[in-house]
Amino acid sequence: MSFVTFMSSTQGRAIRIIAGAALIAAGLLSAGTGAIIIAIVGVVPLAAGAANVCLLAPLFGADLAGHKRTAR
Fold it and tell me: Taking the alpha carbons of 35, 43, 10, 63 in that order, is the dihedral positive or negative?
């Protein structure tokens, strides 16, 4: 549960946004179909960080919305 707590924090949110942007950049700077898929996959953590949701949280029995966990 501490992983989900960290990922729902401001630092975890920043890491998700940076990781998503890095995947998108790596995909766009490379060539081939695999690179395009990497760029598309990078949108998921970027969007999740921007929306302040942790997509792994329901797997650990926590709320999907990050603001609910960080407000405690």
Answer: negative
